[in-house]
Amino acid sequence: MSLDRVDKNWLFRGQFMARPHIEPLNPLLHLSSQKLTLGCPLLDHRLRGGLPVGSVTEIAGESASGKTQICLQILLSALLPPSRGGLSAASLFIHSEFPFPLRRLRALSSSSSLSDPLDHIFVAAAHSPHDLLSLLAAAESLVARPPTRLPIRLIVIDSIAALFRSDFDNTPSDLKKRSFLFFKIAAKLKEQARRFGLVVVVTNQVVDVVGSEDGPGRLRVGNYAYLCSSGRQVCPALGISWANCVNTRLFLSRKDMIVENNASSRTTRRMQVVFAPHLPEASCEFVIVRDGVFGVDL
Amino acid sequence: MSASIAMAESSRSGAHALLDGAQTAWDMLSEEQMQKPITTGCEELDTILGGGIQCKAVTEIGGIPGIGKTQLGIQLAVNVQIPVQYGGLGGKAVYIDTEGSFMVERAHQIIEGCIADLFEKFEHRKQSLVCPYILQPNSFLANIFYFRVCSYTEQIAAVNYLEKFLEEHKDIIVVDSITFHFRRDFDDLAMRTRVLGGMSSKLMRFTKKHNLAVVLLNQVTTKFVDGSFQLTLALGDSWSHACTNRIILYWNGNERHAYIDKSPSLRSASAPFQVTSKGIRNVTSNCKRVRMM
To answer: What are the transmembrane regions (chain A) (predicted)?
Structure first.
């Protein structure tokens, strides 16, 4: 929507006035803002209940860190009733990484107690940021008037980084164009999250941190001076601009350790809260097993 | 004697009649001194701010994601409500949330922390018998007037609406964040600049007319300057002149710091602060007892 279409004089003279809705902060209604369970009580506990409705949560991590596994798991937990931490809702999964992990989703859904969960999961592919924007515009009617008996209340985008991989060079003007798209996408996601009471999860890749102490790559964002995965210092992709677009950032890391005398390796995985308006610094070790992703208590 | 005083007074009122609404600098100074600043919850930060966030001024607070801008915004919306009997303003807050960062459960936590600290600080005072009825989390929440805006047009509409809304007493407006909706592409960038300018001068007018504090939280961006990327506040070019004071929040090693970047009356200084479960507090001990003689 461009400013040209709105009466410029109207805006400028301050006569553009629609009484905005003032939210009563009724603690009884909103105190524990509704959360979507991750499917594991320990992980939920670290996140004070799970993923919040009405906000955008980013899950960043390197390949095979568990991002997609968690996404698949929440597609199913969304179908649970609120009494079990779900939303009694269908989901929309927009993927930019290929192929879509259908086999894993089917395995997880068959081991869950839900009936016909796959009927309530909508999948769409996006190849570029403009694809994503068109999908989100189309999704609005899908969310407002769901074809199934369950409303859509979860949108997952896996991953945001892959959408921006090829179209942009490292020049200042391209980075600016890219950044404009971040804010356009984020504003759309947040508006839909707010209007329809959605949980929005966006996964992101990580890049290696290189350069001097004072370089832009070394800028500390959030609760940790540095983030490590597989023995390398990393940071979530798409820079500070994108970091400004999400409400909550979670980081998944993995560490492969050689087990002595055994010549085999054990993978430890960790989820960390990098920043969140409602969460203190927190981390939790987790495992990925046949039935899904679960936190482990040390 | 009395005749000359009468003449002096009539010439004074004559001068006032010429410049309707104008004040003498003396009047302004006395007014300013009567206006209590809003405490941030962190004593060291209050100190470099001259007591806290100034009323009748627009203060911009910028910083990278996760540094504590929203935390500070919520803290101020809570602290403005500290009753006069406890050394506060007993005021009300308007919170304009443009990004969805405001979480009621966190506001509730910060309110409980504020009340707990007030009780600890003032427990020796017998006259606090009246106050416990006011010091309930529900009444604090009820005095935060929360607007959620999802686009730049909604943001402009909200600011325009405030003109009427502020007729009932409010003491602080927090906008979290001011630039998010303006950082996407616009077909007409010159129009964007003018709209931002119009919004900022409106907010500035509110501080004068309604005697309140305006706090604008802003994001940080990298700007390509002289061949390298530098950190600056978002939309700095179209925005930076609009604020009276500017504070930057940043990481100094493992500690959060606040730095006064621009102020007509305060010295450039920085102070450490921390974000605890109770809210914004001093880095040293957050269980200080106030010693009364």
So the answer is: none
